[in-house]
Design goal:
Layout: E1 2-7, H1 17-33, E2 36-43, E3 56-58, E4 65-69, H2 83-87, H3 90-96, E5 100-103, H4 111-120, E6 125-129, H5 156-162, H6 168-182, E7 187-190, H7 193-201, E8 209-211, E9 234-238, H8 247-259, E10 265-269, H9 277-289, E11 293-297, H10 304-308, E12 313-316, H11 326-333, E13 338-341, H12 344-349, E14 356-359, H13 364-376, H14 380-387, H15 394-417
Length: 418
Amino acid sequence: MRVLFLCHNHPGLQPGGTEVFARGLFRALREQHGVEGLFLAAVTGAHRELRPGTLLQGIGDAPDEALVWLGHFDRFGLAQPDTYGLASLAPVIGQLRPEVVHIHHLLQFGVETVDMIRRAAPRAKLVFTAHDFFPLCPQEGQLLTTDGRLCPGPSLDRCQACFPGRPGADFVMRELEMRDVLGECDRILTPSEFARDRYIAAGWPARKILVMRNGIAAAAPTPHRAAPDGRRDRFGFFGHVNRFKGGLVLLEASRRLSEAGVGHALTLHGGAAYQSEKFMEGFTAGLAAAPEARHRGPYGAAELPGLMAQVDWVVLPSIWWENAPLVIQEAFLHRRPVICGDLGGMAEMVRDGVDGLHAPVADPAGLARVMRRAIETEGLWERLVAGIRPPVTIGEAAAHHHALYREILGRQRMARAA
């Protein structure tokens, strides 16, 4: 089986959850199921300089992984006007002759890439994974209003409230184009029931949308830290530091705990690249006001077990719905209970009172109360640890995807035989 994977970046340059999973899935399909093909990641000048002679670049030593430099992109319309760059991909795709093209994001590639693939590989089956809500929401795919309120889904009035300078026709045309282009896909996958429900509520075809859980590389859990006094009061944040991930909420919750005399330690692990000056000013002020909080900066995948060994709880204070956060899988792999928001994909993954605790979203006082309960309730941490189920492995995810590819290809082959 020949498969082409498209992702909006490469985990070697930007180790986000989608990038890590997509490349891990590609490798698992290759190693466990004999799949051949190409993992193609889009990059811009923020990650790699444009090199003369070609828009395609190698990365590392992998012969089946490559980068394509696409420096022009319209985030509102998920459009890629660089037709020269896209045209350079057509011969590569034509030569590969993929049977399945799996698109893991439209960022950088744009909707035009789907049309180009249809021309370059007309017999290929198309699969799209909606790792987030970009096709539904022009506000960075967050389903979060510009003033920080949760959005139940796209509508003309709600979208215009976030983009008051745009005519209503822009939103209508965007919605029609997303449905038209992605409607060409043979399957649309979501990593959570919550996301599937959101797409169906927005009018997408339920018959094409399938929940397919993301997987994580198998590894031995890191041991829990020794706590002779039985007090489990060390909290960790893992992920990119930005407004949506709720770092400011977490810092304020920590400040409130300190003010109330509740001993604890909070460590935030993650970079803060590409953030606004205003956000960074608020983050710096929040750190200064929370005496028990520390920001340790970016970390690599190899460092994660050692960092997990220092914490009792993983906190996910995101202020948006989330979909299927990688950090929850990482926490459960290392048998750390998770404290997260009480809605969206994160609440679907974390069972309140079973393997973690739910807290009200964007509510520092509410989060502080839950963190205090986590510290002071005797036996709670041990009970939640016992309730943690191992996350889906990347090998299991690869087996499920391979079965899906075979199913949709089998239908095509049966049609040809008939």
